[in-house]
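Typical record is below.
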Amino acid sequence: MDVPPTKTAYEDPATRSAWRRTATFRLSGFVLSLVSFVAWLYAVLMTPVWTLWVLFPALFVLIYLAMFNTARVLGIRSLRRILKVYPWQSVPGAASIAKNGTTRFSFTDPERPDRTVSLGYGSFLGSSRTFWVRKVRSGEVGEVWFAGDPRFLGVVAVPGPRRLFGVGQRAAVDGRMSARTRGVSPEARERARAAGARVG
């Protein structure tokens, strides 16, 4: 499938629809995690004290899910910001499985075509059940769409686009690390800054 011939990915109507679907899905997950807390509290209040040892461990699961869904909701605006700066590019064979079982995406360095830059997605916790890990292992992923600069951050999607999610280098998103300053042109640095990356 050909990428849309637009200056930025967000100018494409299909991309805007995909972003809205992603936002709706993530907001739904966030609301569901809040409702789960209310249901847990109701169950605690209505259950005899001696059975609380059964319900208490569920609280830790609910806290993890709430934190996970909160992070995903906060990332919605970041996705749109990136899509408003970079166009889509089709990258065949970019997805592979990392040694820790998560998904790794390899893209060509925009300013050094002889080099590749890798971006990871996921964590070891439950990684074998994610969509991308399952599809890469089964050989169903032959092409991905990427909007961004792999030296900083970007958005990866199934061609269409579908299943949008953000990826990024730690130095570009983590304030505790030194931002990348070498091997990047001023123009690329400005675009990355406009997309929300830390560029030094």
The first helix runs from residue 13 to 46. The radius of gyration is 19 Å. The chain is about 45% helix and 20% strand.
